[in-house]
Every structure is written in C-alpha cells, then in structure tokens.
Amino acid sequence: MLEYRIDRRSGVATYLQIVQQTQQALRLGLLEPGDKLPTAREVVEATAINPNTVLKAYRELEREGLVEARRGLGTFVRRSLGSAPADSPLHGELLEWAARARTAGLDRDDVAALFTAVLEEQFPQASRGARQQPVPHGAPTEGDPA
After folding, report:
1. How crowded is residue 37: how many other Cβ atoms within 10 Å of its Cβ?
2. Strand locations in 3-144 (E)
3. Would you place residue 84 in the very low, low, confident or very high pLDDT band (cuts 50, 70, 90)?
4. Over the stretch 24-45, which tens digit does the pLDDT of each residue have?
5. I need a surface site. Which of 2, 18, 47, 144 has the fewest CB within 10 A?
6. Which residues have C-beta within 8 Å of that of residue 33, sequence separation ≥ 6?
7. Is a pLDDT exceeding 70 seen at residue 134?
C-alpha cells in the first residue's frame, strides 16, 4: 500500500504533496487501476495531518479523473499515468547516477536543481505548457505542412 511522506519544510502544501506522490506512484506503476488508496484515517495516523487535508487531496485527484470515491468502500484508482515502471532499467541507471552525485558532494537540492535543468533542456515544450509563444498570422503551426 502507498505510504505518504510529508515534508513540512518543503514549502509545498501538504495536500499537494499527497497529490504529487499519488501521481508519481501512478507514473511508476506502483498504483494501477482498481487499486485502493489508503483511507483518510490511515493517512492521518501515519502522517499526523488533518483529515480534511487528505480529503482535499483525494478530491483533487478525483477532479483530475485519476481516482473515484465509492461510498462506504474507499477511494480507488481509475487510471494510470505515464509508462515508466519502477523496474525499468532507467530506474537503476538513475539510482547509480544519484549515488555518484551524492559521492561528489551534491545534496538533495543540488541534485534536484541539476536534474530539473536537464529536464528543461531535454523537454523544453513541457516546461512552457500553456505559456507557449503565439504563432504569427500565416506562419505554419505544428502539424501544418511547411
């Protein structure tokens, strides 16, 4: 079962940490459609957070179409995300890379910054999201013949 880890010093709202950790588990294949999320009571007992915070996170996940609440039964995964299973060979390579980074003296924030910079280089479209630059009138757009 998924166990949430709350970092009170991260600056990220607690409910968002739950949402992000659930999304990550879905991307890695640790949660699959039909799996049951921990009850709000179980999360509260494990993390000492307010039950309303857990419910807010679960409502956000439901709004995103990732989970569904079934009255009297719990909250269940509706769909998965991504295709990067936890047992992927890339996972092992990243573990080795992170170990080398630690040996080189980088701390967690240094590694996160470096990895984020590489992601920005390799996936520039994803970082722009909805803030893409407007296309001049008459210029070909993606999918249009040039």
Report:
1. 25
2. 67-70, 74-77
3. low
4. 999 888 899 999 999 999 999 9
5. 144
6. 77, 78, 79, 80
7. no
Q: What is the helix, strand, coil percentage profile of the chain, to 5?
A: 50, 5, 45
The packing angle between helices 51-63 and 14-27, to 10°, is: 50
Beta bridge partners of 67: 77
**CA 51/CA 103 separation, integer angstroms:** 40
Which tokens go with 135?
């296309």
pLDDT tens digits for 85-112?
666 788 789 999 999 999 999 999 999 8
| Tokens linked to 139 | 């210029």
Going by C-alpha positions, the residue among 10, 31, 132, 118 that lies closest to residue 82 is 31
Residue recorded with tokens 């893409």? 132
